[in-house]
Amino acid sequence: MKIYYIVKEINKIPSCQYNILMLKALGYDVIPVFGRTTNEIKFILEKSHIYPVVLNNSVGRSYKFILKFRKFVVKYLNNNYCKEDMIFIGTVDTAVCLAGILKKYRTVLCVKELYDHDTYFYKKILFKVTREATTVVACEINRARYMKSEWKLSQMPFVLSNRPFYQELPRKSFGSTKETKEIIEQVEGKKAIIYQANHIHYAKELINLAKALRQINDNYVLVLIGNVDNDEDIKRIKSIYNQVLCTGYIKSPLHMEITSNGYIGITVYQENSLNNLFCAPNKIYEYACYGIPTLANDVPGLINTVALAQSGVCVNWNSVENLINAINKISDNYDFYQDKAIEFYCNSDNLGRIKEIVEYTKNVKEKRK
């Protein structure tokens, strides 16, 4: 049995990389099929003897690329897919490109977001593609319940967390590139509070954090890994607390070299959508794998993970005093939170769960024939 893992654009979706690596580690013959990827991702996969099939890496007009991608996948599957094989669709955007053809195959659809703020038209397509899939996978339990209710699914989606899959996790990396080495040198000997995201926003919350760090007046440096949405916000944060380092966007998994040098990791979401309330961030696991405690806000998705596992502290970020108390609590009980973070990471059995998903999908489809 071959498993074709299909993603339109994998560049900024680490969880897809992890799933591919896990399928390979379990002994499955996994073949990634990408619309676009990067040399870095290809290198990571090829180290594990996984060789992706890629349409191209050119940047063109979106609708033209979608049509090319659809034709590319259809042709590839027609030439290669056998009845005992299986397809994993890594993202909903990928599934939407392939709407109408997925029901022909044994298909696992991985849904990364809730799309509760998307257009009626997009939700209509989403409703359709979830029905074409043999199995639907969510990344958080409350999201799974929402999907079953909102999309009227016959079965509860499986839950596969966004826990990273790494085989080597060196604590306090020295950096493997000139860029990461220089950043790591700047935080050496300091208590680095790491916030990693594709886009750095949440100005109000980060401003309150800056105020808290100024009052604590310890050896903390705030490290923001990602593209800054608004330069004025960063100027304001730096005017409050001057120990702030903005790295810009660092490609995955290189960002983990910086994260490995962290003292506390930040995870914060605005309470403006169900997707944010029931968040399922990679970063809480990326911090935990190094034993880095998480400082988070008190949305349900983080209370049910970080707070429940005691891998960090969840508080309301509208209060500077809350943040001061939370940082001091972590610092005063650092060994406890460090141990709990590692325990949280190790207790997430994604290998077992992804094997269960594959076997379930295989058996369900066979029963339908």
What does the model show?
There is one protein chain. 41% of the residues are buried. Helices cover 47% and strands 18% of the residues. With 369 residues, the protein is α/β, with parallel strands linked by helices. Helix 8 packs across helix 14. The strands form 2 sheets. Strands 3-2-1-4-5-6-7 form a 7-stranded parallel sheet, sandwiched between helices. Strands 10-9-8-11-12-13 form a 6-stranded parallel sheet, with helices on both faces. Helix 9 links the parallel strand 9 and strand 10. It contains 16 helices and 13 strands.
Write a brief structural summary.
The protein has helices at residues 14-25, 39-47, 62-80, 92-97, 120-132, 141-150, 178-187, 203-216, 231-240, 255-259, 274-277, 283-288, 300-309, 320-332, 334-346, 350-368; strands at residues 2-9, 29-36, 53-54, 86-89, 107-110, 135-138, 158-159, 191-200, 220-228, 244-248, 264-267, 294-297, 312-315. The two termini are 17 Å apart. The model has no long low-confidence stretch (mean pLDDT 92).
Write the layout of secondary structure elements.
Layout: E1 2-9, H1 14-25, E2 29-36, H2 39-47, E3 53-54, H3 62-80, E4 86-89, H4 92-97, E5 107-110, H5 120-132, E6 135-138, H6 141-150, E7 158-159, H7 178-187, E8 191-200, H8 203-216, E9 220-228, H9 231-240, E10 244-248, H10 255-259, E11 264-267, H11 274-277, H12 283-288, E12 294-297, H13 300-309, E13 312-315, H14 320-332, H15 334-346, H16 350-368
Parallel strand pairs: 1-2, 1-4, 2-3, 4-5, 5-6, 6-7, 8-9, 8-11, 9-10, 11-12, 12-13
Helix pairs in contact: 1-16, 8-9, 8-14
